[in-house]
Design brief:
With 363 residues, the chain is an alpha/beta fold. The protein folds into 2 domains: 232 residues, Type I PLP-dependent aspartate aminotransferase-like (Major domain) (Aspartate Aminotransferase, domain 2, 3-Layer(aba) Sandwich), CATH 3.40.640.10; 119 residues, Aspartate Aminotransferase, domain 1 (Alpha-Beta Complex). Helix content is 40%, strand content 12%. It is built from 11 helices and 11 strands. It has a 4-stranded mixed beta sheet with strand order 1-9-8-5. Strands 3-2-4 form a 3-stranded parallel beta sheet, covered by helices on one side. Strands 6-7 form a two-stranded antiparallel sheet. Helix 1 runs antiparallel to helix 8 and helix 8 packs across helix 11. The two termini are 22 Å apart.
C-alpha cells in the first residue's frame, strides 16, 4: 500500500501530463514559458483572487511574501511551532524573529485566543498555518490583525482546495501562500509554490522579488532572488488541475469515512464548522505512537509523523526565548500524532485494511 500514491495518479492522467510536457519540450521555453502565465491565470480564478504568482517552492513563497511586506531585522512574525520548519525558517531568512503561539488540540491550528497577547511593537506580520488540510478562523485572525494594523499571510501549503465560509484557502488573507511539493493536495513533480493576493502593489513587488528584484531585464529596483517556477512543472499542474476538484471531494469522503470508523479507538481530526478539509495528511492521535506505527508497518500499512518535534525544540531556535513547557498543546501533539495513508485513489478495500489494522493495533 502506498502512503500517497503518485504513481497511480500519473497512470490515470498520463496522456494529459505527457502531452503537456511534450509541448514544453517542443517550444523550448523552459524558464517563464507560456505555461507559467496560463497556470497563474487558472490558479487565480480557482482561488478567487486577482493575482497568482508562481514561485520555485513553498518556502520561497513565504520568504517572498515577508520581503514584499518589508519584514526584516529586528521585526517579529507570529506563527506556530507545530509545523514544518519553513514557516519559521523564512522569518530568520529575512532577519526577523518567529514568535511561537500554541495550537488548538482538536484542529492543530493556531489558538486564535492567544494571538493578541503575542503582539508587541516589533510585530510586523501574523503567519498562521492551515495545517493538515483545514484553515484556522481567519475571520477572527483578520479582525485582530486589522485592529493592530498588521498583515496576515496564510501558509496554505497543506490546505490548497479547502474552504472556509465558502472562500478558498489562499484567498482569505492579504497574502496566501501554498506549495506544489509532490505530496501536497495539488502537487507537481518537483518543488514549486505560489502566492495569491488582491493587492496590485504587493503582486508587483512579489513578482519582482521572484525574478531577481525586477520586472524588466537588467533593471533591479529591489533585492530579489531566483524564485521562478519551472515551465515543465507548470505543465504538470495544468494537466492535473482539471481533476483537482474531484480529488478534493474524494479526500473529503475518505477522511470522513476514516473518522467515522476510527473515532471509537483513537482521537480523529475534527472539522471546524464552516470549514472543509482536504486531508493533506489524515492524522490521528494515539498513545504509544511509535509502537502503534510499528504494528501497522508489520501489517503492511505505511504511516508518517508530522511532526515529531516542535520548532522551539530545534537547535536553530534554541535562543528564540521559547522553552519546553511554553507550548503544551503543540508539545503533546508532536508526541501523539500519527498520519495514515491518504490520497484520492484509496478504494474501499484499502481503507478497510487501514481501519482494521489501526483497530487491531489499539485494542
Amino acid at each position: 500500500m502506498e502512503f500517497i500514491d503518485l504513481k497511480q495518479q500519473y497512470r490515470r492522467y498520463q496522456a494529459e501530463i505527457d502531452d503537456r510536457i511534450r509541448k514544453v519540450l517542443e517550444h523550448g521555453h523552459f524558464i517563464m514559458g507560456p505555461e507559467i502565465a496560463e497556470l497563474e491565470a487558472a490558479l487565480a480564478a480557482y482561488v478567487g483572487v486577482k493575482h497568482a504568482i508562481t514561485v520555485a517552492s513553498g518556502t520561497d513563497s513565504l520568504e517572498i511574501a515577508l520581503r514584499a511586506l518589508g519584514v526584516g531585522p529586528g521585526d517579529e512574525v507570529i506563527t506556530v511551532a507545530f509545523t514544518w520548519i519553513s514557516t519559521a525558517e523564512v522569518a530568520g531568512l529575512v532577519g526577523a524573529k518567529p514568535v511561537f503561539v500554541d495550537i488548538q488540540p482538536t484542529t492543530y491550528n493556531i489558538n486564535v485566543d492567544l494571538i493578541e497577547a503575542a503582539i508587541t511593537p516589533r510585530t510586523k506580520a501574523i503567519l498562521p498555518v492551515s495545517l493538515f488540510g483545514q484553515m484556522p478562523d481567519y475571520g477572527r485572525i483578520n479582525a485582530i490583525a486589522a485592529k493592530h494594523g498588521l498583515p496576515v499571510i496564510e501558509d496554505g501549503a497543506q490546505s490548497f482546495g479547502a474552504t472556509q465560509r465558502g472562500q478558498r484557502s489562499c484567498g482569505v488573507t492579504l497574502i496566501g501562500s501554498t506549495s506544489f511539493f509532490p505530496a501536497k493536495p495539488l502537487g507537481c513533480y518537483g518543488d514549486g509554490g505560489a502566492l495569491f493576493t488582491n493587492d496590485d502593489g504587493l503582486a508587483e513587488r512579489m513578482r519582482a522579488i521572484r525574478t531577481h528584484g525586477g520586472l524588466k531585464r537588467h533593471h533591479h529596483p529591489l533585492v530579489g532572488m531566483n524564485g521562478r517556477f519551472d515551465t515543465l512543472q507548470a505543465a504538470v499542474l495544468l494537466a492535473k488541475l482539471p481533476h483537482f476538484e474531484q480529488e478534493v471531494a474524494r479526500r473529503g469522503e475518505i477522511g470522513a469515512r476514516y473518522s467515522e470508523k476510527l473515532r471509537e479507538v483513537c482521537v480523529v481530526p475534527e472539522v471546524t464548522p464552516n470549514n472543509t478539509h482536504v486531508y493533506a495528511q489524515y492524522t490521528v492521535r494515539v498513545p504509544n505512537r511509535d509502537a502503534v506505527g510499528e504494528k501497522l508497518k508489520a501489517r503492511g500499512i505505511p504511516t508518517a509523523v508530522y511532526y515529531p518535534k516542535c520548532l522551539h525544540e530545534q537547535p536553530v531556535f534554541a535562543n528564540n526565548g521559547c522553552r519546553w513547557g511554553d507550548l503544551p498543546e503543540s508539545e503533546r501533539a508532536s508526541r501523539e500524532v500519527l498520519s495514515l495513508p491518504m490520497h484520492p485513489f484509496l478504494d474501499i478495500e484499502e481503507q478497510d485494511r487501514v481501519i482494521a489494522a489501526v483497530k487491531s493495533a489499539l485494542t
